[in-house]
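#lab-general

N.A. 3:47 PM
ok so I finally got the sequence cleaned up, no stray characters, all 456 residues accounted for. can someone with queue access submit it? mine expired

B.Y. 3:52 PM
send it over

N.A. 3:53 PM
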Amino acid sequence: MQIIMDGFGVRRRMTIGVIVAVCLVISGAVTFVVLSAPPTTITITTGPEGSSFHKAAVKYAALLAEHGVKLNILTSRGSEENLRRLSDPAFQVDVGFVQCGVCKVPPPGLVSLGSIAHQPLLIFYRGAIVDALSQFDGKRLVVGPAGSGTRGLALALLEANGIKEGGRTALLDFEPEKASKAILEGTVDAVFLMGEATPTSVMRVLLRSQDVHLLSFSQAPAYARRFGFLSVLDLPQGCIDLGNNLPSHDVALIGPTIELIAREDLHPALSDLLLDAGREVHGKSGLFQYKGEFPAPLDHDFRISSDAARFYKSGKTLLYRHLPFWLASLTSRLVLVFVPMIVVSIPILRSIPFLYRWRIRSRIFRWYRTLLALERDLAMEKDAERRKQLIGRLDEIEKSVNKIKVPTFYADLFYAMRVHIDFVRQTSGRNVVGTKTESPRSPSSTPLSGGPGVGA
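B.Y. 4:20 PM
back already:
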């Protein structure tokens, strides 16, 4: 601290203030770096255990664990329950799978990280061949459990065909396993199933059953036009089992896409990590998609987050491509904090020497103006008594100059001022006594009296 006081000629209080301010700025920057670190644990809400949602989440967890991030998996009934959890600020969940079309007005505070897969609606039925939903009027239908997107979609499609709750058609909300058993036993006429809530083992049993048929939507394009979130999906003959030719004919299906929904405050680094895992899990070719088709920023119920849009446009940032996740995260935060500080500091630091020199020179030159005025008055004053008073004013000027705080590297200005004061005193004193025997001393030969100004 003494070096700063000596070098810049500032007082102790100001020096302490500057040191405290610098420490506060550095502490604030370090605190921001620490607090802005991505959490090491996040939670995803999926679907029932064994469903496609749940299986995808298990794969996500394995991939995130490789980067030191733990993914907690919460099972649920399906999309509607996932959406309720995400919409509730009191519920501890960060991301979840949500079927398109489950909400008409997206809740605030939620964004989409993109669509991850097509989700076909599979309707299994017994009896005569059916190719239109209207033919199920008056039947016993299992439309999915409460809280699942399957139920919401089934009710919307049935209503479009004039079949509503409370009418003569029985709409049941059995769980997938119970629904599968019921259709096999013939206690219900049809079941609506989707991968969000149905284990693949259940669907496999129904696809291989001789007494159960899979509905082929003859009006599939019409449904896709009427419900914008639906797509027409084709299930080619034999794609399930080539040896047994399952299905025995091409099947036209419809279904929404599934979105990975996140809360708006999800850390950008975790958003990138989830999408990178999504490419690994959902990017392969399958029955209803081409390789690399998902994940994709499709425009559906929720707006795409800015972090996801950047990821789809340019991929992972340079740091995350070449460094481990934790190191890339730390480096990016350090860059975010300290690069702007450096950019702002450079012009400020470059201007400080000029401003400081101007400040020091102005403090000294103010007394030069006073000294020049006094010297002019002495040159014009003829009264001896008045001249003595003016010369006495020089002592006051010298005392004031000695109190100026001047940094060591500007000592030349300080001492030059004192020399010039003494020069004016000697010149004026010679004129007062009226003799010319003593010539004024040059500034370089003038003895200097000590003063506290320099380096104080």
